[in-house]
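Lecture notes, unit on protein representations.

Consider one protein chain, 384 amino acids long.
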Amino acid sequence: MAAGFSHLSVNGYRRLRAVELPLRPLNVLIGANGVGKSSILDVLGLLSGSAEGVLEHCIATWGGLSSLLTADGSVEMTLAVRAAEAGADGLGYQLRLSSKGYGYSVSRERLEFCPDPDPAGAAPVTYIEAAGERIRYQHEGKLIAPSWDYKWPETALSQVPRMYPEAERFRRRLADISDVYHELDISPRAPIRMPQRLSSAQIPGTDGEDLLPCLYTIRETEPFRFKAIEDALKAAFPSFDRLELPPQSGLLTLGWRDRNFTRPIFANELSEGTLRFLWLATLLQSPGLPQVTLIDEPEVSLHPELLRLLAELMREASDRTQLVVATHSDRFVRFLKPEELIVCDLDATGGMTAQRADALDLSAWLQDYTMDELWSKGVLGGRA
C-alpha cells in the first residue's frame, strides 16, 4: 500500500475525549450521527494543516481552539500519529495545543523514532522537540535551536529545514492528506455540470471542478485506468457505452454515451447519483491520489448496487492511498469486510469509542448474517 499511518491518537478534540485508532489501508468508520466519525477526518485535516504551515488558519476557520476542545472545560488537546513502514514502526509525531487567552499555543511537540518492539532497550531518536518557546531540531546528533525567523503560531514540524531529511519526509507525508470529499454541488450551474478548462489535472477536485481535465489526463496518460472507470460505469449503468471529452476552444465538455440514445447526454442532464458515482470513481483512479484520502458519507444519492461497486473501487485504491471513510449507511456496510470496518459508539461520558470490527468475535454470526444485518441488530455496536 502507499505509505500512510499505522496509528492515530486523539485526546480532547470534541467528542474524541480519548481515542486510540489503529489504521490500515482501508478504514471505514460506521456509527450513528453525532458520535464523532467526521471528527476523525477533521483531526487528520488539522494535522495536515499543521504540517503545511497553515495551522493558525485552520483553527481560525473552525472558530478558534475553544470550539474544537471537548465541551467539559478542557483547555488542551493532544494529537498523535505514527507513520506506517514496511516491517517496522515509523516515526511518531505528537502535537499538543493549549488555550492561551483568546488564542492557542503549541505547548508540546515531538517527532521521534522509537523501535517497536524496542531492541535491547534502544533509546528513541528525537528529531524535533518543542515545549512552549523552547524549540530544538536534531542536527549531527545534537538538538539545536532554530537560527531563522521562527513563526510562533505554527508548528516546528512545518518549519523543519529540508536539510533534515527524516523530519522533512515525515512532514511531506503528513501534509499530503486530502481535503475531505463530502458534499458535491450538483446545482444547475455547479462546476461539475459546466465545461471545464483543458489542463493537466491529477485529481477531480473536492467539488468536481477538475473532473473533466482529470478524466482527460487519465485517458491520455494512463488509459488502463480510464478503462477501469468506464468498466465501473458499465457495471453500474447497464446501458452506458462510453465517455467522450471533446475539446473545443480550450474547454472540455462531457458526453455520456448511452446505447439507448443517438446523441450524447451532457453533464447538465445527468442525475445527482450518476455524477457523484462518476466523481468518486474518477477520484479513486486518479494519478494524483495523496498519501491519505478522506471521504465523508460516500453513500449520498447512490443506489445500493452502486455502493457494492464503490466498495470494490475503494479496496483497489487502498493499494495506492490510505482511505479513511465515514458513513452511517447500513447498506454500504453490507459490502465491507470486518477488517475494513471501525465501529464508533459513545461511552458513558459522551466520548467516542472506536473498535475495529475484526477485534470482535463475529465468526459464528457471519455464518448466518451479513455485516449490515449485524450492525442493524446492534451486534457490532455503533447504534448510539
